[in-house]
Amino acid sequence: MREIRLLHPEQLVCYAEMKGHTEDITAMIFHQSQPTILFSGDSKASVIVWDIGIPSVPDYKTRYQLLMRLRCPRLDVNPVLNLVFLPHYAYLIAGCEDGLFAWKITDLRLEKREREPDMELKLEVDHEVCIDGLAQLSDNALVIKVVESGEIMVFDFAAVLERRKGNLSLQRVVPIEMRGHLYWQKTDEIYINVSVRQNLGAVLCGDNEGAIWIYDLDPYLDDLHSSSRKKFFVKPIKILEWPECSVQGNRDEDQQLKESITSGFRNPVVNSVEMSSDGHFLAAVTDNNLVCIWRYAPPVVQQQQQQPAPPQQQQQQQQQQQQPNLL
């Protein structure tokens, strides 16, 4: 799809179709504090900044505006897979397969010329990278995932700007130093995104075997915000394995449906995961067009909120934690 459709959720109407991309749209995010500002990226490494306007009643007409076009250096090569806007620094970060690119956007006014990135964020590795995951953990911390690396990484954007400021030779390409390393699945499967629930300090990622990996980074956020360059290595607090699926309680009742759930010969790839604001529900999307809803009791939240229970009840709670429910 190459156009963006604006929907009014209460009236259930499509009130505008915005056309500007010439290729398929692959990523979209809203500005956190200016809800009419929308960023969209496409499969040919082009990014558009929109002002979608405010619909007026009773006919819900709106005047949207294409404010600016941003383009990555290697057009027609790698798609924009993720977008993150850091309001504290007024930087838009585009995550492409071949790298991370940043634009300083302080004035959201109409620009006629296309803008190249102000800088490229370069991983200090000795091989070509493919970045298929990007998310914002805090005001200054970003989480990325590199294909075949076997880990999810965290870096400090404030440190990137400080490094760039202190060296004139690093104005266009700035090396980034990883502060956190999260152990993950070793696989060459591509397009498995990483996500974050900021208010809980939680990082989530699916894998190529149907599992969901959950990390608690809340204890490490203070170190990330400090001037310390201390590194940390984190294991998941929970790995939710792909469940044994059944049809009305009978696993052998409908073999065709069972094969559609498991792709016939393997567990599906979990491409994307999101967590509810209270941490009790997960939504996952797989490569065989399934949307899976998990009811999950986070260990950290339980420790903080629940009062001590009798021994028998504690044992039941532990069993429930070990076996989250797939709704």
Automatic annotation (TrEMBL):
Ordered alphabetically, the record's keywords are: Chromosome, Leucine-rich repeat, WD repeat
Q: What is this protein called?
A: Leucine-rich repeat and WD repeat-containing protein 1 WD domain-containing protein
Q: Where is this region: Disordered?
A: 303-327
Task: From the UniProt record, give one GO term of the biological process aspect.
Answer: establishment of protein localization to chromatin
Molecular function terms, GO-annotated: chromatin binding
Q: Which GO terms describe its cellular component?
A: nuclear origin of replication recognition complex
Q: Where are the WD repeats?
A: 18-52
